[in-house]
């Protein structure tokens, strides 16, 4: 992720904090996988394990942020080094929020189980979407480790597809609720789960945008795909 500097100690610090970010990413990925399993099996124990990890994720996020603040204060980096440290900080915050979304899924699964509606809830589409979102996060972390702008652009495009799937799913749920009011409660549960999964995709997209920011120094939020691809040429 990092280039060599005159100070080997600075390199060591950058590599150390980068490794911690990847460790945090792995922890959050595990949360998502457990949350998806809890959803697919309506397994309360699996949901509990997701929620038990929340404190560890929050603690690591705060530790990384503290280390970044220390590096910036002591090294006073400029240009790309400073952009990298800022991007690491933002990536860490986004990973912590992905963990929050996994916890939301776990809490909703617990609520569904306790309500007794687990057997009637059609969750197959949600599980597929969750797997897609989890895969997108893995791609984003891999791309960030390599600062791979081509992979970042691919992730941005893939997230657009996830957003389209979410919009179509919402329209389908609205139709279900209009045709049969008895499905309203289950449909709202599904909508809550789908929104949490969509947000995981959004955070993966944010990480991809940070890659472009580090490499090109350009903030590509709210920028069209055509403009992004033109800036990278």
From TrEMBL:
The lineage of its organism: Bacteria, Pseudomonadati, Pseudomonadota, Betaproteobacteria, Burkholderiales. Plays a role in the regulation of phosphate uptake. Residues 22-108, 127-210 form the PhoU domain. Transmembrane segments: none annotated. Pfam families: PhoU. Belongs to the PhoU family. Homodimer. The gene is phoU. Keywords: Cytoplasm, Phosphate transport, Transport. It is found in: Cytoplasm. PANTHER family: PHOSPHATE-SPECIFIC TRANSPORT SYSTEM ACCESSORY PROTEIN PHOU (PTHR42930). It comes from the Bacteria. This is Phosphate-specific transport system accessory protein PhoU.
